[in-house]
Amino acid sequence: MKNSRLPPFTLPLLALPVAAGCTGEAPERPVPVADMQELMVSVMEPAAEAYWDGVGEVLTEEGVHQFRPLTEEDWTSLRNAAFVLAESGNLMMMDGRARDRGDWMAHSRTMVEAGRLALDAVDRRNPDAVFDAGAEVYYACRDCHARYAAETLRPSDPHSAPGPEEAPDPGAPEADATDGGDGR
Ligand code: HEC
Predict the structure, then answer these.
(1) In the 8-state DSSP scheme, what is residue 151?
(2) Whose CA is nearest to atom 30 of ligand 1?
(3) At residue 179, does pLDDT exceed 50?
(4) pLDDT tens digits for 142-164?
(5) Which residues line ligand 1 (CB under 6 A)?
(6) Contact indicator for 58, 141 with CB cutoff of 8 Å
(7) Mutation to probe ligand 1, out of 44, 92, 94 (largest number of atoms < 8 A from CB)
(8) Which CATH code is given to the segment(s) 33-152?
(9) Most C-beta atoms within 10 A of its C-beta, which of 85, 88, 148, 162?
């Protein structure tokens, strides 16, 4: 059998329309307000936390307590968070934010797709799918950080592998005393 792999990721085409758009007067175009750190801390992280907090389990004295969305409001908050996550991927592709036209765009696109998956899980009212989509969201964060923000490998979240000893997490926002649910 022939091993006919797909050619390596091709991206040069993406760059063309951008270059072509640079002539003449500046058209109305989006202008970033948050810098990258602010976008992460004020937009992405809260949305991710809201989504990750939707489905899971905590250890209590009575044993493992599973939590999941119960009310219509719970589902709506998850849905809102999923939209923020998906659209954040688009925000990261804006001129002024995009670090390059290659890997950065691919990671941002992955973020959009993970957000879409998160949304789909909510629309199916499927807690297991919400949990799984939460993992995909986490991978999207982690993989971009591995490439572009090595000091921020792990956003704080329940999907990160607990590891034998708690690794230092310089990327986690300092004020994370809100849940205290898992006591780690
Ligand atoms: C397309 C790339 C990309 C994706 C996807 C991404 N990040 Fe980031 N993130 C970055 C970069 C770059 C930084 C470093 C920002 C800086 O300080 O310049 C960062 C930094 C952070 C920080 C640290 C901010 C600080 O205080 O220094 C947090 C928290 C964070 N990201 C959370 C997330 C979460 C949560 C997700 C997923 C839901 C996510 N990020 C997805 C690129 C990304």
Answers:
(1) G
(2) 40
(3) no
(4) 999 999 998 875 555 444 444 33
(5) 36-37, 40-41, 44-45, 48, 85, 92, 104, 107-108, 111, 137, 140-141, 144-145, 148-149, 152, 155, 171, 173
(6) no
(7) 44
(8) 1.20.120
(9) 85
Give, to the nearest 10 degrees, the angle between helix 45-52 and helix 72-92.
140
Indicate which residue's Cα is closest to atom 11 of ligand 1. Answer: 149
The crossing angle, in degrees rounded to 10, of helices 45-52 and 127-148 is 150
Pairwise CA distance, residues 29 & 18, whole Å = 12
Look up residue 140 and give its two tokens.
């999207």
Nearest Cα residue to 113 out of 97, 89, 135, 94: 89
31 by Cβ neighbours in 10 Å (0-12 / 13-18 / 19+) ranks as: exposed
59: enclosing H helix or E strand = strand 56-60
Residue 92 has pLDDT above 50, yes or no: yes
Indicate the residue type of 95: D
The model's pTM is 0.75
Ligand 1 midpoint to CA 141 (Å):
7
Q: How far is the CA of 5 from the centre of ligand 1 (A)?
A: 32
Assigned token pair, 47: 């949305």
